[in-house]
Design goal:
The protein is α/β, with parallel strands linked by helices.
Length: 158
């Protein structure tokens, strides 16, 4: 079976990004880093940095070199959190120097997009009652950082 690994391309400070990500997300680690020792379209020998790392149970590779593009909303890392404390911790850590957005989205200071969501949201959005799903959807769309208590209140019709 094929192995699926996400690949991220950083314009700068890949090491800082990976240190932050692996510090904030339990079960994460940088597995190795290196520099490409050959001339490449991206630069001379030693100028292109590469790395392998894990975020929780997901495998990633990364490269750092100049690029004419940056991350955008078409790719994001979604983290399903067990409780509000975990949402708050990740939100605070990843949004530093970045940009917060609607519906639990943020862009970190390296430009990568994240969705910090409660696992409970998935459960509420799959409720068999369409009225519950509508109320939860409306509540979620009005939030910036996800608030589990607010989602629960919406589900209950409060």
């Amino acid at each position: 079976m094929a192995t699926i690994i996400q690949h991220l391309w950083f314009r700068e400070d890949m090491a800082g990004a990976l240190e932050t990500y692996t510090r904030l997300i339990p079960g994460s680690a940088v597995e190795w880093t290196s520099a490409l020792q050959a001339e490449s379209p991206s630069g001379p020998p030693g100028s292109v940095k590469i790395a392998a790392f894990r975020l929780g149970d997901q495998r990633y590779r990364a490269i750092e070199t100049e690029a004419p593009w940056s991350f955008n909303h078409t790719f994001s890392v979604m983290v399903e959190c067990e409780d509000q404390a975990e949402i708050d911790r990740l939100w605070d850590g990843l949004s530093q120097g970045g940009e917060i957005q609607q519906c639990g989205w943020l862009r970190d200071r390296w430009g990568l997009y994240w969705q910090i969501t409660p696992r409970r949201l998935t459960e509420l959005m799959s409720d068999s009652d369409p009225a519950v799903v509508r109320r939860v959807s409306e509540a979620m769309l009005s939030m910036v950082k996800m608030d589990i208590a607010g989602l629960e209140a919406a589900a209950a019709g409060k």
